[in-house]
Amino acid sequence: MPEIALGQLAEKLGARLLRGNPERRVGRLAGLMEAESGDLSFLANPAYQKFLAVTRAGAALVGPAISADASPAALLQVDNPDLAFAQAALLISPPPPPPPPGIHPAAVVSGQASLGRDVAIGAGAVVEDGAAIGDRTILFPQTYVGAGARLGEDCLLYPGVKIYHGVSVGSRCIFHAGAVVGSDGFGYAWTGKGYFKIPQVGTVAIEDEVEIGANACVDRARFGETRIGRGTKLDNLVQIAHNVKLGPCCAFAAQVGVAGSASIGAGVQMGGQAAAAGHINLGDGLTILGKSAASKSIPGREAGMGAEKLVWFGIPAKPMPEYLDEMRNLKALGRLRRMMKTLEARIRELENK
Q: DSSP per residue over 142-198, as a string?
């Protein structure tokens, strides 16, 4: 693992070295409480500031509000410690080198497929007729690209990714192991005796710089398209149903589920196991917290909603101030019940007299 001098690190990150020797080197990343003298750590959440005073880290990235005497560690001051720590990770712990361009002898690539420059295709990968793979895109072993599917430039498909027929993927997209894009939407008609499968004849369009986590699924549309907006990030085990429209720069944590034909605005965040009902609209900038269910359309920034109306929680989801008010009322119910019993007993006593 490469080491880097603090002075060089500060220069590359645009940081200010508050204290410490610029020649001192760090070569590992660690949390504040786990770090040792050769490690780089960071403080992004003020709740952990108490750990900064006792950390054994050699250096720590901190925000502009932290003073030089806040820690025994060398301190590098940046505007965004979380982002700077991520950038430092690429310098201190770079990812493994990509596989070299070329087609593995054990891959199956149709002669009718179109491959760009410097494409890498691993063992057991399959590329069907009419598929197009953009320049420098990497297909790890056991990936599948269906007939007529199109992948842009600089995409990365980890082992076991399946891109179904006719799907369109932009450039610089990342798909983690087991992700499936373009599987049939969940559509059936009841015949009175059983379910008749409704053909899913649409497609999926993935815009640039989308990342899809392991074993996440994006279903093809019943007709038209399911669309994932530019820069959107989907965590592991996320389910996006048919004909859903996701705006740019959304971020959905693990096991989020979005039902068919829902329309999600720009910059929407959904916590783990949160859900959105079908055929609803979620506006720009909304946050649906974990284990919440959005069962109706919710306007966002595009409708002029203030910050207090952008964070929703509960089942069904409510604005956070409303939810907290309800919880305070529920917490008071026990006390109110005891008070009522006392008053009822006092009334009976007075009536008997």
A: T-EE-TT-EE-TT-EE-TT-EE-TT-EE-SS-EE-TT-EEEEPP--EEE-SSSEEEP
Annotated active-site residue in 104, 165, 242, 279: 242
Residues 48 and 152 in one domain: no
Model confidence over 290-345: pLDDT tens digits?
999 999 999 999 999 999 899 999 999 999 999 988 888 888 788 888 888 888 88
Q: How many domains does the chain have?
A: 3
Active site residue 104: no
Tally the residues of the chain: 353
Is 257 in the same domain as 111?
Answer: yes
Asked if residues 326 and 318 have their Cβ atoms less than 8 Å apart, the reply is: yes
Contact of 266 with 248, CB cutoff 8 Å: yes
Q: Hey, is 326 helix, strand or coil?
A: helix
Cα–Cα separations (whole angstroms), residue 347 to 104, 337, 342, 352: 88, 15, 9, 9
